[in-house]
Design a protein that fits this description.
The structure holds two protein chains of two kinds.
Chain A (H helix, E strand, L loop, with lengths): L3 E4 L2 E4 L5 E7 L6 E7 L5 E8 L5 E2 L8 E7 L2 E6 L8 E10 L2 E4 L3 E5 L1
Parallel strand pairs in A: 2-11
Antiparallel strand pairs in A: 1-3, 3-8, 4-5, 4-9, 5-6, 7-8, 9-10, 9-11
Chain B lengths: L3 E4 L2 E5 L4 E7 L6 E7 L6 E7 L4 E4 L2 E6 L4 E6 L8 E7 L10 E2 L3 E6 L1
Parallel strand pairs in B: 2-11
Antiparallel strand pairs in B: 1-3, 3-8, 4-5, 4-9, 6-7, 7-8, 9-10, 9-11
Chain lengths: 114, 114
């Protein structure tokens, strides 16, 4: 079945630094990738939608200059949290479409900014 | 935009009993309805989905029913086991799997008591 690999699973960074999260579709070409943020005991909140080779579409209230999304190939999308602050600490999850399985999610990245 | 309501927010059942989670949606154009299971610290995992041209779908102990007229769909888990304990999310989208973003319910925390 469709598999999406997300790395790293956990990352701790210092305030003011940048962190990159990778999302790879392993056995299918991901025409569209979605990035979500999830706070404890809450649902997934869509941050942005990206299509291969084009600029990401950000949801209202999401700072595009802070959360940089690159979808340069059909198998890789990256989310870079720039100048991270403690309030950016969260669980980030990617999802990809294009395989026969519909929407496939990555395993998530727990970001802690100290 | 689409709005998905999910009930209950928490559900406790005895091992072996059935569990039912219900969702309603607002956009009559929605035509794809997946259910996800999320374990602590992990990404959502698709457990079953249904498209609008089908009223019911079953996969072993899991079934989903869809009532397009009433705009609601339900997840049924029979013969529950402790490993079924997790948070379950319903979702909907309007363009068929892979075309549009998913709108999620707020989740149901299911606890199966041994």
């Amino acid at each position: 079945g469709a598999v999406v690999s997300q790395h790293p699973s956990r990352v701790i960074c210092k305030s003011g630094t940048s962190v990159k999260i990778e999302c790879r579709s392993l056995d299918f070409q991901a025409t569209t990738m979605f990035w979500y943020r999830q706070f404890p005991k809450q649902s997934l909140m869509l941050m942005a939608t990206s299509n291969e080779g084009s600029k990401a579409t950000y949801e209202q209230g999401v700072e595009k200059d802070k959360f940089l999304i690159n979808h340069a190939s059909l198998t890789l999308s990256t989310l870079t949290v720039t100048s991270a602050h403690p309030e950016d600490s969260s669980f980030y999850i990617c999802s990809a479409t294009g395989g026969a399985g519909g929407y496939t999610f990555g395993s998530g990245t727990r970001l802690t900014v100290v | 935009g689409e709005n998905v309501e999910q009930h209950p927010s928490t559900l406790s059942v005895q091992e072996g009993d059935s569990a039912v989670i219900k969702c309603t949606y607002s956009d009559s154009a929605s035509n794809y309805f997946p259910w996800y299971k999320q374990e602590l610290g992990k990404g959502p995992q698709l457990i079953i989905d249904i498209r609008s041209n089908v009223g019911e779908k079953k996969d072993q102990r899991i079934a989903v029913t869809l009532n397009k007229t009433a705009k609601h769909f339900s997840l049924h888990i029979t013969e529950t086991q402790p490993e079924d304990s997790a948070v379950y999310f319903c979702a909907s989208t309007g363009g068929g799997a892979g075309s549009y973003q998913l709108t999620f319910g707020k989740g149901t925390k299911l606890s199966v008591i041994p």
